[in-house]
Amino acid sequence: MVFDDKIRVLMIDDMPPICLLVKKILIRMGLSNIDTCHNGGDGWEKVEQAHLVGKPYGLLLCDWNMPESGLDLLKKIRSSGIDGIQELPFIMITCEVFEDQVRLAFKEGASNYIAKPFEVETVEKKVKETLVKSGLYPS
User: Fold this and answer.
1) CA 97 – CA 65 distance, rounded (Å)
2) Residue of 110, 114, 6, 115 lying closest to 58 (CA atoms)
3) Contact call for residues 89 and 134 (beta carbons, < 8 A)
4) CATH number of 8-133
5) Euclidean distance between CA atoms 106 and 119, whole angstroms
6) Of 85, 90, 92, 119, which alpha carbon lies 20 to 30 A from 71's?
7) Mean of the per-residue pLDDT values for the chain?
8) What tens digit of pLDDT does each residue of 7-21 get?
9) Which pTM value belongs to this model?
């Protein structure tokens, strides 16, 4: 599967090896315009700045448990009221796997959910599903 390499992706995780692993998977999928950061606050700044300069992200993958949590970032994005940010496809990647946590993530607006530890194929499948659902990749 090959995606439009112009789609900007932001990967946020407080563990740099996870960011590197996901980045390698995304590159293998044809997504090469990938930024990383390590907490929700920096993630918000990157999302906001990218939007302001007219080069918005098309996909965000984010850990839940980190400084300035992924769930807080998800809530901030969904409640921002800013067109182009509010609808940003958001995949939660997390060790939080209990049913009530998964439901909470979707209730708050997660586009998809990947449980850690994950398989490469799972990341590929969830990214493709999310991009298809958001209209960034043909079904």
Assistant:
1) 12
2) 6
3) yes
4) 3.40.50.2300
5) 21
6) 119
7) 94
8) 999 999 999 999 999
9) 0.94
Query: CA-CA distances (angstroms) from residue 117 to 93, 97, 129?
Result: 9, 10, 19
Enumerate the domain spans of the chain: 8-133
**Which of the four pLDDT bands, split at 50, 70 and 90, describes residue 139?**
low
- Per residue, the 3-state secondary structure of 62-104, as one string, reads EECCCCCCHHHHHHHHHCCCCCCCCCCCEEEEECCCCHHHHHH
With tokens 């990967």, the residue in question is 11
HSE-CB of 50 using CA atoms within 13 angstroms: 24
pLDDT at 2 over 60: no
Q: Please, are residues 33 and 5 in contact by the beta-carbon 8 Å criterion?
A: yes
Q: In what order do the strands lie in the sheet with 90-94?
A: 33-37, 8-12, 59-63, 90-94, 112-115
Percent of the chain with pLDDT over 90: 88
